[in-house]
Write the structure tokens for this entry.
Amino acid sequence: MESLPEFTEDLRQRPRTVAVGRRDWGEPGPPSMLFDRAARAHSCRAPWAQDRTAVRNMELSYIWSSMSLTRPPSSTFGGPPPTRAAAGGRRLSRLSKMSSSSVMKPKTPSKLLYESDATTTSETGKVYWPRGLTVSQTGDIFVADTANHRIQVYTPCAIHKASFGSFGTGTGQFDQPSAVAMCGDHHIAVADMKNKRVQVLSENGRPKRMFHTQWEPHSIVCDPDRNIIVANSNNEIEVYFPDGELYTTFKVNERLPYRSYQWPLFVTQNTRNEIVVSDPVTQLVKFYDYDGDLQSEFKPTVRQGVGVRVIPRGIFCDRVDNIFLVDGLNHTVNYYSDNGWHLEQMLTSAHELGTPQAVALTPEKHLVVTECSVNGSHCVKIFRGFSCECHKSRPGSVKRKSAGLQPAKSAPAAMISMGISAIRE
């Protein structure tokens, strides 16, 4: 076990300088945040993405020229439209139908980018009942593979990178790990549920330290000072110092008895040093300070449907304190401001979302979701998050495999693709 450095900063003395409700990803976040590194793989400034607008304008200009040639002069300059019996009218009808279907309304790319079942062929990369997940600053995805008693590591393209851990009670072993969180630089904290402990490991799986919790941990998050916050099975929040010493414990709802395993608490943290708790029993999202005092709460709703019931489960706060919330009843992922205003419904079944469990945001502004259910799939999916010019112009890539696993194109298809690329360039 390694010794820990001295921490002199008080975990409740940081300034609160966050503009609530802003979604400006160009400005750097506060210095006390874990995920403040800019995206490395984002390609919004790619030349081919910038030239897409010019190509579209050229296509529209060609269509307008064709329409002007096929219509009579009186119709072109605002006269009465041609009759159905006129030959020009029939040609114009065909051209308008073609332009509206093939050029004027381009197909919207699918939100689903990658799926672990499609990009992983070996059994070591398969997950079974995956629960919590977290994303590193470099974009690597760490998933708690609960039923397989291990931690899975995926690349930003959902390709299996590594796995570590096995069933047991020893150091580096797990018994149904339920959650994982980034803990400082190149370290992760794992909620080892059935062993009633938290293990801190390096990103490659080397054990660093561990400590036991009072109850079985279900959800976990670490603040920028590496203090570890745990939501346990007794409807409580436990706060630990980096060395494992218990700081405080408080109940989320005093009126509730011992909590069922089917309705555990989910916890995250915002940039204002508040503990954000998703409570599926009371159907509320609550904000606490480190001493357990309730600061505020809101009941999540859906703006598109009046009276729609939402059961909050997995939760994640972005850099401006807006909240991604998994709806365990309707199987959706919603986006809220920190005061409870519903901003957007990010993912639904129309986006090929199954039964989501946890959600996180990558440096590329993609949404990573774990899915598992009795009759559904057990996998990790990556979806398009916020729109940008790069994402708008990319073709649909649902369940896309890596470049080495793509089937080879036929000679005519390859020549057509090369010709289209040359025209756009």
